[in-house]
Amino acid sequence: MGNEKPIGVAVLGLGNVGSEVVRIIEDSAVDLAARIGAPLELRGVAVRRVADDRGVPAALLTDNVEELVSRDDVDIVVELMGPVEPARKAILSALEQGKSVVTANKALLAQSTGELAQAAERAHVDLYFEAAVAGAIPVIRPLTQSLAGDSVLRVAGIVNGTTNYILSEMASTGADYSSALADASALGYAEADPTADVEGYDAAAKAAILASIAFHTRVTADDVYREGITKVTPADFEAAKALGCTIKLLSICERITTADGQQRVSARVYPALVPLTHPLATVNGAFNAVVVEAEAAGRLMFYGQGAGGAPTASSVMGDVVMAARNRVQGGRGPRESKYAQLPIAPMGVIPTRYYVSMTVNDRPGVLASVADEFGKREVSIAEVRQEGITDEDGVPAGARIVVVTHRATDAALSETVSALADLDAVQSVNSVLRLEGTAE
Ligand code: NAP
User: What structural domains does the chain harbor?
Assistant: First the structure.
């Protein structure tokens, strides 16, 4: 290699991911320079706490993000600080000053992707975010580049390791939600405040990013229908097992044709029954997987570590090398593609299947009145199970009815569940989950 001008990098954040990114930049300098065609030089690292014990020469550390981003010798800004602010301000400033940006910040992207993409467009620079969805797993680049000539129909995945760990624990040990969450916290898989994970916000942010890319349409986290896993019970897992299924928190992005013949995008997150034979059923613990279905390619599956400092840094560094190469060779990678601008489909029009578990009075005619509520809304029943239940003293206390439906609109299904809850014979509707990954 000759005297190519070095590419200057600023890393914002020195936490789980940032510290691994800095390590790779330093440890793999020779290889990275060969792959890029110019040396990659670390200009500085932004942190809140500047100190000598950070594992990075103190001269490289700063708590002044804006000053670091604005340095003339910084070409690429790698944002790994976290929350929406100050990350948004730092990224916009970097883009406006003509620097390429790499970020892993899904919360920010799912909220402000348009604003950031426009700033990148105006400055003719790269904005890359492979690490924002499913950590180490390459899924953004396959969707934007490898499948650019195909037509994506569906992207469905397990993209949150915390909830997948909790659900896997519940499935394998029979634990209830609270003790599985406590285990996940003790092992460092759940944050002190797990809300973003267990209520599905993190998975919804990733669904928004995937749907935007897969369907060339701007989708934000607010467009994503979302349910978390906090209401999933051991009884649901028992019922799932009896049906040959397990329960997974799925992020689903789909291009659908609604009854009015219009193409729409559906993006949704909820816990669902998944047949044990489906590839996503075997994804356990903190692992992630994304299944992409495209018209010509058919079904593709991407699987691996969805979080963690080093795995996420791998994705970040892939983006850094791409952005650096573009700087050396001139040009840019793919820009935001939003030409299709498909409308977002409301949850009510989405065809889904339901599993409903309810406790009813054990007397003649109850099953018929339950079936009647489904029939009235043209929801066809695929399977019914009924078993007697007793109270703590062994006295008969009614019956449990489990119904699995065929596909119907979500609105018809949820109306049916409301009507069932109002029936005199129904003591309680205990659980309602959707069923995914089946033909009908
Ligand atoms: P983290 O461990 O909490 O580290 C955040 C870093 O940012 C810290 O070094 C912190 O400085 C610094 N920072 C925060 N606010 C700052 C400010 N105002 N000015 C300067 N520095 C600031 O976070 P992380 O787990 O590495 O995650 C980083 C990003 O990657 C997030 O967007 C996250 O969503 C995303 N991500 C993480 C993972 C993962 O497995 N961890 C996976 C995929 C994506 P101090 O050290 O001084 O406090």
Answer: 7-135+310-329 (3.40.50.720), 139-307 (3.30.360.10), 348-435 (3.30.70.260)
